[in-house]
């Protein structure tokens, strides 16, 4: 099994009505060398300027990004080539990130290589330290910039730190 840390940037709150603009993925292993990053052309005429502003892209820029069908096929190939056994999805806010990745995979690829499950890094940390009022973000080494690859890398670093500091049993393949 391989944990893959994912982060998504979007121009609105839900897939379909709005678009996933970019995403980053990092296989959680000590080197953090296996990465994937893509920028996707919008699939809808709807967008929220404040949501898009978070990712630091303009609407005009996003219109030049790659076709989502091509990206999702490439991402599926990368997951297959980069993971050992089953790929496990983990994110800081998996409720948000998962909905976009899952929807885009089903819509543009026909299936989701992650299956039907995702893992939430924040909830995992809260359980380990037995405190629902804390967050894990101090465990990141890479700054949280809203570049999807930077953010996925920071979350992968935090998961590795949980393994090191708390003895979390996870597969690093």
TrEMBL record:
Pfam families: RNase_T (PF00929). Residues 2-168 form the Exonuclease domain. Keywords: Exonuclease, Hydrolase, Nuclease. Signal peptide: none annotated. It comes from Chamaesiphon minutus (strain ATCC 27169 / PCC 6605). It comes from the Bacteria. SMART domains: EXOIII. GO terms for molecular function: 3'-5' exonuclease activity; nucleic acid binding. InterPro entries: Ribonucl_H (IPR013520), RNaseH-like_sf (IPR012337), RNaseH_sf (IPR036397). This is DNA polymerase III epsilon subunit-like 3'-5' exonuclease.
């Amino acid at each position: 099994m391989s944990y893959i840390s994912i982060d998504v940037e979007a121009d609105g709150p839900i897939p379909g009505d709005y678009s996933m603009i970019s995403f980053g993925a990092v296989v959680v292993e000590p080197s953090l060398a296996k990465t994937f990053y893509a920028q996707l052309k919008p699939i809808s005429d709807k967008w929220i300027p404040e949501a898009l502003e978070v990712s630091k892209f303009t609407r005009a820029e996003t219109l030049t990004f790659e076709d989502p069908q091509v990206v999702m096929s490439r991402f599926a190939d990368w997951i297959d080539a980069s993971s050992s056994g089953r790929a496990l999805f983990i994110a800081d806010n998996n409720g948000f990130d998962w909905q976009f990745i899952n929807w885009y995979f089903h819509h543009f690829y026909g299936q989701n290589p992650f299956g039907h499950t995702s893992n939430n890094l924040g909830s995992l940390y809260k359980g380990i330290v037995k405190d629902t009022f804390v967050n894990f973000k101090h465990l990141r080494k890479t700054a949280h910039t809203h570049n999807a690859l930077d953010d996925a890398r920071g979350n992968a670093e935090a998961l590795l730190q949980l393994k090191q500091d708390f003895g979390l049993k996870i597969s690093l393949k």
